[in-house]
Every structure is written in structure tokens, then in C-alpha cells.
Amino acid sequence: MNTDAAVEPAIDASGLTVRYGDVLALDDVTLRVPAGGVCGLIGMNGSGKSTLFKTLVGLVRPQTGEVRILGGGIREARRRGDLAYVPQSEDVDWAFPLSVREVVMMGRYGRLGFTRRARRGDRAAVYEALDRVELTELADRQIGRLSGGQRKRAFVARGLAQGARVLLLDEPFAGVDKPSEATIVRLLTERAESGCTVLVSTHDLQALPGLATESVLLRRRVLLHAATTEVLRPENLARAFGLGEESVA
Ligand SMILES: Nc1ncnc2c1ncn2[C@@H]1O[C@H](COP(=O)(O)OP(=O)(O)OP(=O)(O)O)[C@@H](O)[C@H]1O
């Protein structure tokens, strides 16, 4: 075992098995993602991507296995504000009476004192994050009154405002137009260059090489974790999707 803290993986999941009743969603998944890079997560519908994210943030408890984030427990990482999660849109209650600005401010909660009162630095971080995802003009709008792409960008802004060192994004490009996708890719790349670790699932295989240097093919188990160019080879995609090359591109 490597005991050098400097090379300890930022995301270290070992032997994760998750069952929902009779459904085996994750089967002995082991995944180690080094710090400072973007890792893609791909797999067909129902392959366990969302379950893996939820397990990595502690929303789903695995029947077996363990997760370590930045060398410690999930709860500690969350408490420090080091772990940000952008859920799939279906997992969010869009009727909740919160404005875009308030959602983004939630990213600062781990850093606010017990009074939960935002300080100047918190407001500045929220302002900057909104600006970066180009949502400043919609900051006071209720989150349910946004388009699908704007909703995604609001949650990406929450992750940015949090200043987390590990960012988990579950299909941040779903329903997002190409310019907004390019904006999100640029922001994630910048975060990775400054030392953050990003795990991002996507069905947009064409965008993957421009986004992630390494990728994981999931089909309940990790089929392959390698350089993105290797992962995207037709024979590997065929294993993950059970289809020919044309059908999945
Ligand atoms: N709350 C739940 N209760 C029961 N089964 C579930 C639940 N959540 C997910 N599943 C099942 O677990 C498996 C993995 O689902 P998961 O949502 O993790 O896949 P996914 O790769 O994220 O899919 P998609 O690409 O469609 O978002 C599927 O068979 C799904 O039907």
C-alpha cells in the first residue's frame, strides 16, 4: 500500500456493492481517482452512475465497501466544504421556494458560522460563480422558473461557490446548449488545473476527449478505467453499451 499522502487518490472507493431490493446497482466497484484532473464516467442507462455518485457523497449507503475522500471520511470532507455534488435534475425539488442566488449560497453553508449569516467573502464567491455560469441576470428568479440548461448551470455555480476540492457532477450537460456546455467544460478544466478533482458523468461521448483525460466505463462494475482515448475505442464501448460503434456515438 502506498503511504505517501501526496499521491493518495482524491476519490478512493473500494469494493462498493449497492442493492435496491432485488436490483444490484453496483457490484464490487473499486475506483481510485487521483487529485487534480477530470475523470469521465460513462455507461448505459441504469449502469449505476447516479448510484455511484450518491454513494460517494453518502446519500446511499453501500452494503459493502468503503469510500474515502481526500484521505478521510465522506462526512469530514462535506463538513469542510471539500465535496460538491451536482445531482441529476430529477433528484431536485424544483418547486422549492429558493432563488438562484440562494441555491448558489447553499454552496457556502459549510463555511458560514453558526448564525448562517453570509459575509462579504461569501457574497463575493456567489456573485463570481453566478457570473461565471452567466446567470447573474436571473439571480433572483425561483429555481423552478429556469430552463433545463439554466438549472444545471445554477447547480454548477453552487459547486464553484463552494470552492470544493472534489467535484462530482451527474450529467451536467443534459439539456444544456452547446455554448453553455463549452462554458461548463472550461470551468471544470480550470478547476482541475488548479488542483481540484472532478468526476463527471455524461452521455455526450464526443465531448469526452475535450473534457476528461481519463475515463471510467461502468456497467454495474468498472469495466475499464484508462485514458479517455483508450476508453472510447469501439471494442470497449461495445462492452459497456452492448452495441456497435455507430449506435453509441
Ligand atoms: N431508488 C431506487 N430504487 C430502486 N432501484 C433503483 C433506485 N435507483 C436506481 N435504481 C436502479 O439501480 C440501477 C442503477 O441506476 P442508476 O440511476 O444508478 O443508473 P445510471 O447509470 O445513473 O442511469 P442513467 O444513465 O439512466 O441516469 C437501475 O437498474 C435502476 O433502475
Automatic annotation (TrEMBL):
A Pfam family that the UniProt record links to this protein: ABC_tran
Positions of the ABC transporter domain: 11-245
SUPFAM superfamilies (alphabetical): P-loop containing nucleoside triphosphate hydrolases (SSF52540)
Gene Ontology MF, one: ATP hydrolysis activity
Keyword tags: ATP-binding, Nucleotide-binding, Transport
DNA repair recorded as keyword: no
Gene3D superfamilies from the UniProt entry: P-loop containing nucleotide triphosphate hydrolases
UniProt family annotation: Belongs to the ABC transporter superfamily.
Protein name: Metal ABC transporter ATP-binding protein
Annotated source species: Herbiconiux oxytropis
